[in-house]
Amino acid sequence: MIKHYTIGIDYGTESGRAVLVDLANGEEVAEHVTPYIHGVIDQHLPAGGVVLEREWALQHPRDYIDVLEQSVPAVLKEAGVDPSQVIGIGIDFTACTMLPVDEDGEPLCFQAGFANRPHAWVKLWKHHAAQDEADEINRIGAEREEAFLQRYGGKYSSEWMMAKIWQVFNEDRDMFDEADAFLEGTDWVTAQLTGTIVRNSCTAGYKAMWHKQDGYPDDAFFEALHPDLRRLTATKLRGEIRAPGEAAGSLTKEMAERTGLLPGIAVAVGNVDAHVSVPATGVVTPGKLVMAMGTSICHLVLAEEEKEVEGMCGVVEDGIVPGYYGYEAGQSAVGDIFAWFMEHGLTSDLVDEAKQKNRPIHALLEEKAAAYQPGETGLLALDWWNGNRSTLVDTNLSGIIIGMTLQTKSEEIYRTLLEATAFGTKKIVEAFTKAGVEVNELVACGGLPQKNNLLMQIFADVTNLEIKVAASKQTPALGAAMYASVAAGEAAGGYSTIFAAAEKMARVQEKSYKPNAERAQVYEEIYKEYSKLHDYFGRGENDVMKTLRSVRDKAKGGTVLA
């Protein structure tokens, strides 16, 4: 019997990863990572060295093509699989990752005339410089009682498509006019594979105000933003929108030669990294909240009805799996907070001890942090190092730690940051359940659950919910490969539905994290204090975080005398 495979490619923040998957059982036969040469561009542009302002985060689209040309041939070679056995390819992406293109679909940053213009480049998901535009979208949307606003929990984020497009319009009008269209990164890369631009309903719904029944908001809303934006969706966002699992087209001869695959195989519609992970964990029914845990966390849950949930990132019909409404919420920084601490928060004695014991510093830090009981550190933190995505939807918020003394140790601060991210997730779970969206179990995937047992146990104790962990280490890529098998179809050796694919290909680990009743009770008391701080600093009673940001920006601009 001939084995069939698909390839899933997960485009992350720093690199892209291709995984070759056996369709019979979901086994990840081979994987290969291609780091982005240009990484995250947040200081100055590659061409000309134009200095970027604060809150900017860009990328180079050439890095995305490198992943196709390097990682796809690598997994074929490693596995020794004949290209004729590969029946499809699918990709997922961070979102909203947006780029302007010309009428040929080429990124404007590739043109010499635009290479030194920041708005010509890819705006990464964590580009937060469009907060002013997001604030105005929310104000005008609320005044007009726009229906789309409630589907985003009452606030539209600066991370998403319309805010980023409007920032381009406001700050570089000539370039906005030059752009033939604005595309999600996942749609642009898919178009490189097929030769045809097709938009996906996942990013259109969660990031660009699109609704399966209603489409985009009407022209009058965009005219209220600016008269020249009236026809925005009909012009710069035009194009067919297809759902996850559908084929965007077939692989072109040129891209087949560059990847080592056969021309004509199915290319699945693009998807979002977190959303495509859901069926890869085996979750295809309501009640289970999937946490895609990495630099940030995306929280995703299925339901049979559309509800209004405070601060959710969106609810989209068929947005995750067909037949259900898919809900998204999230935390803008989780792994990023821990990485920040590892770079800036370690004391010299802890570093020296790790060297003396010849142990990885992270392992030693986790061991020491695990020795504390809940509440023993005397510390509490708000997890807003990169703003708050849910439930407050405000990128201008910042982090805080209280309870510090002269005796406070690095491991105590580290544990407190772990706990803060768990409290942030509990706040999101509460918002869902309060709105009538059932959550009775957590399922974790991504890089963090694979290497941080303490973090996962804290999450279980804080939320008082059992946490299961995906068996796959590359869940987004597996999900993309699963949807590629659906795009290829049964006749080619794939699957007829994502439900059928999940039954054969998805799995979780035998081990799970169960909450400890005593620890959960202590955390419930601490969580009450977290909630007080959350509302005090996050709901307008004390805007000190925003005041400090404003003073900082004035000082940086030289308007405040020393």
UniProtKB/TrEMBL annotation:
<dbReference type="Pfam" id="PF02782">
    <property type="entry name" value="FGGY_C"/>
</dbReference>
<keyword id="KW-0547">Nucleotide-binding</keyword>
<dbReference type="InterPro" id="IPR043129">
    <property type="entry name" value="ATPase_NBD"/>
</dbReference>
<feature type="domain" description="Carbohydrate kinase FGGY C-terminal">
    <location>
        <begin position="290"/>
        <end position="488"/>
    </location>
</feature>
<keyword id="KW-0808">Transferase</keyword>
<keyword id="KW-0067">ATP-binding</keyword>
<dbReference type="InterPro" id="IPR018484">
    <property type="entry name" value="FGGY_N"/>
</dbReference>
<dbReference type="InterPro" id="IPR018485">
    <property type="entry name" value="FGGY_C"/>
</dbReference>
<keyword id="KW-0054">Arabinose catabolism</keyword>
<dbReference type="Pfam" id="PF00370">
    <property type="entry name" value="FGGY_N"/>
</dbReference>
<dbReference type="InterPro" id="IPR000577">
    <property type="entry name" value="Carb_kinase_FGGY"/>
</dbReference>
<protein>
    <recommendedName>
        <fullName>Ribulokinase</fullName>
        <ecNumber>2.7.1.16</ecNumber>
    </recommendedName>
</protein>
<keyword id="KW-0119">Carbohydrate metabolism</keyword>
<dbReference type="InterPro" id="IPR005929">
    <property type="entry name" value="Ribulokinase"/>
</dbReference>
<feature type="domain" description="Carbohydrate kinase FGGY N-terminal">
    <location>
        <begin position="5"/>
        <end position="276"/>
    </location>
</feature>
<comment type="pathway">
    <text>Carbohydrate degradation; L-arabinose degradation via L-ribulose; D-xylulose 5-phosphate from L-arabinose (bacterial route): step 2/3.</text>
</comment>
<keyword id="KW-0418">Kinase</keyword>
<dbReference type="GO" id="GO:0008741">
    <property type="term" value="F:ribulokinase activity"/>
</dbReference>
<comment type="similarity">
    <text>Belongs to the ribulokinase family.</text>
</comment>
